[in-house]
Amino acid sequence: MQWFLQSHLKRAILEIIASGVASSTTDLESFVNCTLFSCEKKCRFSFTINSLEQSHRPSAWSKKDKSDVNRETDNIDPIASCVRFLLEYEFIRLQTNAESGESLLVSTPLGNACLSASMAPRDGFLLFSELQKSRQCFVLESELHAIYLVTPYSVSYQWQNISWVDFLERWENMDPAMRRVGELIGIRDAFLVKGLRGKIGEADHGTLMTHKRFYTALALKRLVDEEPLSAVAQQFQCSRGLLQSLQQVASTFAGIVMAFCKSLNWNLLAMIITQFRERLYFGVQPDLLDLMRISSLNGQRARLLFNAGVAGLLDLANSDPLRIEQILYNCISFETEQRRNGEEEFETRRRLNQRNLYVTGRAGLTVQEAAQLLVKEARQYIQLEMGVCNPNWEESEEAGKSLIAEKVESENLFSPVQAIEQKETEVMSAPQQPRQQIPSVTSFEVSELDSDREIEKLHNSLIMNFSHVLNDDKISSQQPGGGKYDSLNVVDICADTSLYETFAGILDRTDSVSVSFAVGQFDRSKSVIGGNLLINQQVKCKQDDIVQNYPFLFDENLYLSGVAFAFPTVVAEESENVVYYLNLRKGTSVKCEQKKRLVARLLERETATVDLYDAKDQLKMVYRSGLFSLEQEVIASIRDPKVACWLLQVEEKVIPLQAMIQQYCPELTSLCQLAGRCPGSTGPGANYISTIDAKIRCTVESFLVSHLIRAQVAQFDQLDRTQELLPTFTQREMPIHGALARMELVGFPADANKLAHLIDRLKAAKGRISDRVRTLNGGRQLNFGSASEVAAALKVPRERNGRVKTCRQVLEKIDSPLASLVIAYRKIESNLMRTIEPLYRAIRDGKRIYGNSCCFTSTGRISMHEPNLQTVVKDFKVEIEPGLVEVFSCRSTFICSNPDRILLSADFCQLELCVLTHLSQDRKLLAVMHGGNDVFRGIAAKWNHLEDESLVSDELRNYTKAIVYGVIYGMGTKSMATELHVEEDTARTLMEQFHSTYPEIRRYADKVIQVTRERGYIETLTGRRRYLPAICSVDTRKRSEAERQAVCTTVQGSAADILKNAILRMMRNLRKYRQTLRLGQVELVLHMHDELIFEVPRDQARKVAKILKSSMENCAKLSLPLRVKVKMGPSWGEMQETQV
């Protein structure tokens, strides 16, 4: 421990001496006494030059007893010991002032090298020794020696298990030049054989690290020789991820070694190592480094261009885009662009999209677009590198650009902005001044020689991607082709009060507008001890500036910096690309309260239509920041391109904004690049981790969404059932996202203390079960998660494939107390790990859990994640000992903190079976459902030969319910037999009995499958589609799965639509009767498949229950009545059924 502390002290002393902070003994003494080391020792250290004369040589320590060494080490002055070490190994040296006679400590080039490379003295000395040895004998016949020098020491920990057989075989077959490198650094045949036999011990750690570094260098050598990553991974028997990680780490370490060599003035060695930094990063030969300076090229495409005669960046800049297009076109396999026989249109579109080229930071490009992009970027880079403003690459292109410029100058704003233009003209003193000089307007276009950042923008940086660090004054898309969407004009409506008032009047009269909220991030980190004082001050100043000037803060370190508005163009050919920006910073000519009222008037206006990307999350940000309070309600119609895209292609996952633009508005692809790429499906405005300014991100987003939503609505018009799908989008799916946003903000009540007590009880039960199992297992501890150990303890036979199964279905067949205990233990463990403990960690302020809902599922059902309250189990029992049964109630821990409020639940009775009955029109099933009897009890009584349905227990009813739905949704005979613990023949008989009792269900399922196979998609009751191309597959497994999905979608999807209608109808009725019945705060807090849970005032629970029951029972018109069961109680687990 003493050595560990002194190692850090050595580095700290070296850094302050090498950086010039301390040079005298007084400065050094002051520094050490201000460290945590001094506080921990509770003493003040003193240091003089004379104390260095007390030498403590390591060679003498070996002759002493261990206790003497420890005792003497405690008496050593740590400052003197560290300084002696640094002097002995020449990291620092003593310098005497001739005039004053004062001795000063100054760093040597070796010390400066450690500082510049950010290395500890010990690691620096190891690197110095290795580099010094290589300078004496460097193998230039192969690149392997240089690659070994830049292979980091950490590979011995990253590459845990190397193949010694492969290593020995490679060593024996290695060419002489590479073998000479290995012999110089210490590779020995004997050690390879030792590793092959598994005889390597702790004493061989240093040699093992050398051999692992050499083995890693062999793999890196293959990568820089441009061998495919997958091929190298297969040769060296490792994962691709490991190789990619080693490649990046080695590239970084090469930069460290280069800085180290330059500090030592070993310039020749630095020149040799320099090239490997970029070569390792890209995995290319040195002849491709010139082409790799632009970000859109990877190694394979660069080699393709090089082999075709494009040897460098200058050649690429001077090339005709048609030539580059032909080169790229020849490298991809040929595919016909015509529709194949039996191929649907969306399948053709998907197949052609797969032929597109994907480059860094951009969606799939066609070959033509990729070629134009490469030439464009090469010319930009050469232009910036040479400092030439307008190089004449091609006269025809210059003429085309001038025509485009003239066209843009002649265009006018669309009609809603004309009043703004007139007001701006009044503000300006020179009416004839160009638009770019108006203070309230920012034109985003690229300045040809803007700043040094533009060069970094076009360079493949090894440290940080600068491809989207844009200048706020002049920015454009800079994509090939040009056109009316290459630039964007932003009007700052807070620049003048009259300008704001004019815009506010126009916004109040406009029916449709696209809105985006700009989110920024700031650090709330405190100053770090030993950190850079200037950096700490800058962080603190930035934090204080944001907290003081931006009032709409949320989530600790996020804030809303502005709002962007884009109006739909009336005539696209006669409009400019204009977006209006509302700056939310204090100190503008418009007060913050005015800005809040502007946003509130828009969201509360019933006639307004607001287009928002990722609407649910954006509304949550607006609520949490305080720009819009929870007492207010969003009345305006919301449209979200994500929801529209999901409706148009339900079979695919939600795609990001860039992919949507590429699919629906390809002409805006170039402009979309201004906002950068976003993680997942997050919008650019909310992407606070981006390096792009928030103002640029949100203005670009609002403009893109304005065009994207209109293109998607036009796509709805081309479908067969427009009269159903478009209202589905605007009147059901979008309002649901608003209701869910509010539900997630309100949260679900929970008691942290009760949940913690439940966790303690469950853990104690686990411990008691484990103790009893150890007793039954002969005193041996059992690993409940190991199938092999459980199978051995219970003597479970192996299957034909040699594996053993110890799942619940297998263990339930074993008549043994040990098997029951294993089931109980796993049940407790599963609930703890997957549900209860994550929910406990998610409780905020000890009172509520704020979940996240997702509507983008294949069937349309609302799911939850992070945290998932839908997975909370009902009360369950565990028999720990014979006769000792313990009951655990998880749901009882979810209780209202306010005693004046309770939970109200309304659950559809057998909703999916009602939907199936309505769709199949089975007469017997209709009779049962109309009779009001419990259909599952009736089926259970019939199957179990019971005369009276009252004899059917709840357990038997639930058992029968699972079987019925298993038959409905295509459960196979084998699965049915496993579920029922019967033979397959018995299960098959039961299934046939069910279908013979209700024959129309099978006919309906067959009809659904036939229609789906003819159309390629299936629809729910509301017209929402799901495409299932696999239903025509020749693969039996895929076809059967698609057939099952078709039937499930019609039933589950229609049930999901009914539940959404119920939520919206309840919201409307609450709004309608709130004033009449004087209702208090009624909030939806959870949805559970077919159940809705509200938090209501205790004294108004029955009023709300009547409204809720009526709303749900009348939310859909089916051929049979919908029945709803209402329950209420102080907690989720204590709710009792109530008649209203």
Structure overview:
The chain has 1140 residues and is of the alpha+beta class. It folds into seven domains: 1-48 and 77-117, Sec63 N-terminal domain-like fold (Orthogonal Bundle); 138-283, Sec63 N-terminal domain-like fold (Orthogonal Bundle), CATH 1.10.3380; 285-388, no CATH class; 489-525 and 558-746, Nucleotidyltransferase, domain 5, CATH 3.30.420; 749-894, Taq DNA Polymerase, Chain T, domain 4 (Up-down Bundle); 911-1056, Orthogonal Bundle (DNA polymerase, domain 1), CATH 1.10.150; 1060-1137, Alpha-Beta Plaits. Helix content is 52%, strand content 10%. The strands form seven sheets. Strands 3, 4, 5, 6, 7, 8, 9 and 10 form an eight-stranded mixed beta sheet that branches. Strand 23 and strand 24 form a beta hairpin. Helix 11 (164-172) runs antiparallel to helix 13, helix 39 crosses helix 46 and helix 45 (999-1015) packs across helix 46 (1036-1077). The protein is globular and about 110 Å long. It starts with a helix and ends with a strand.
The mean pLDDT is 78
Structural class: alpha+beta
The best one-word shape is globular
Segments where pLDDT lies below 50 for 5+ residues? Answer: 55-75, 395-482, 527-531, 570-574
CATH superfamily of the largest domain: Ribonuclease H-like superfamily/Ribonuclease H
Distance between the termini: 72 Å
Number of contiguous helices: 47
Q: Could you please say which CATH topology of the largest domain applies here?
A: Nucleotidyltransferase, domain 5
Question: SSE layout and pairings?
Answer:
Elements lengths: L1 H17 L6 H9 L2 H6 L16 H4 L4 H10 L2 H11 L3 E5 L6 E5 L1 H8 L4 H16 L7 H6 L5 H4 L5 H9 L3 H10 L3 H8 L8 H20 L4 H7 L4 H24 L3 H16 L16 H9 L5 H5 L3 H10 L14 H9 L13 H20 L8 H16 L7 H10 L13 E4 L7 H6 L30 E5 L4 H13 L2 E10 L11 H17 L3 E2 L3 E9 L11 E6 L8 H12 L5 E3 L3 H11 L11 E3 L1 H8 L8 H8 L4 H4 L21 H24 L4 H25 L1 E2 L2 H25 L10 H8 L13 H5 L4 H26 E2 L3 E2 L2 E3 L8 E3 L10 E6 L2 E5 L12 E8 L2 H10 L2 H8 L4 H9 L10 H15 L4 H8 L3 H14 L1 H17 L1 E3 L5 E3 L8 H42 L5 E6 L2 E7 L3 H13 L10 E6 L6 E2 L3
Parallel strand pairs: 4-8, 5-9, 9-10
Antiparallel strand pairs: 1-2, 3-4, 5-7, 6-7, 7-8, 11-13, 12-13, 14-15, 16-17, 18-22, 18-23, 19-20, 21-22, 23-24
Helix pairs in contact: 1-6, 7-8, 7-16, 11-13, 16-17, 20-22, 24-26, 29-34, 30-33, 34-46, 35-38, 39-45, 39-46, 41-42, 43-44, 44-45, 45-46, 46-47
